[in-house]
Amino acid sequence: MKILLIGANGKLGTAVHEALAARGHEIVTVGRTGGDLQYDITVAAQVTELYDRAGQIDAVVSAAGDVPYKPVTEMTPEDYTSAFHGKVLSQIDLVRQGVARIAERGSFTLISGVLAHEPIPTSSAASMANGALEAFVRAAAIEIAPQRINAISPTVFTESLAEYGDFFPGVPPVPVADVAQTYVRSVEGGQTGQVYAL
Amino acid sequence: MKILLIGANGKLGTAVHEALAARGHEIVTVGRTGGDLQYDITVAAQVTELYDRAGQIDAVVSAAGDVPYKPVTEMTPEDYTSAFHGKVLSQIDLVRQGVARIAERGSFTLISGVLAHEPIPTSSAASMANGALEAFVRAAAIEIAPQRINAISPTVFTESLAEYGDFFPGVPPVPVADVAQTYVRSVEGGQTGQVYAL
Questions:
Q1: Which fold does the domain A2-197 belong to in CATH?
Q2: ipTM of the modeled complex
């Protein structure tokens, strides 16, 4: 398949790239500042340009999402709006504009995260964004069939424990390679409307 | 308790008003165009004014949220943004600004809805908003204790079947009075971070 990979330069994006390439897929990497194509998916017009430029695509996979972390009482409306634009509306736009662009039986695989269901202090914007994304995926799935859409919802990566482990005390981490395999499962499998939590 | 009731004029708000008043609480009703106090909670500055005006409050309960319904492919970024402002950011703002205003052991009870988990065609913005709200509630709960926060997530009301029943074929409806009792449960009970689905 020809697969558009958004957020290709991060720790997760790199692993997803490897996992999908190992399955023989043709990957077109997209990033704000790196990758085969450089676009900012938080801007709707850039998503349009991205699809124009990418040509025929079988699957869109996203590993991109930015959200702020602060206590609820220090958050501003702009912080929540930033999380909404940075992780929710941006990924929704890949779907909204992508339905008419990708293959008839193509798929979208978006990124959520454990904080939707297992919050940590300071995660209210991240949790909000992940909960929004997961509910959108369930809703979009029943409209866009036979195209498919799933979300990947990982916990903290084993490879990120040094950096983020203190925020997830006692939480079993997941190797990023396992998360990447779940993207393969979503892209090549038959399920839709799923939130793959791991 | 002195309770601020947002969205007091709707079908649900009216029932919540009755249920809380029957329990002996003092209710201050808030609406855009009706109620004891008239404010639009989608505007942060009006939420500030609302709290200034309301004085000491023990609990905030919300039955207010507006979202657009359209197929995914007919939605615009503005539609999703409208849902975010109309149901998510507005209710988040009640909490964000309310934490410093309401009683030390006060509570927030917000409105979500069944579409977070059981979508219908055209509900992607509503589902997104409800999922966002529920995840926010779980996240905020662990930060604001001993203040509490819960969400009420009702299915279609028995009283709304004539209007909306065709959108929920075969779905068991719930009497709005039962939903209102769940607000009583949230306000007077001890739980926090809960999504009461009914």
A1: Rossmann fold (3.40.50)
A2: 0.97
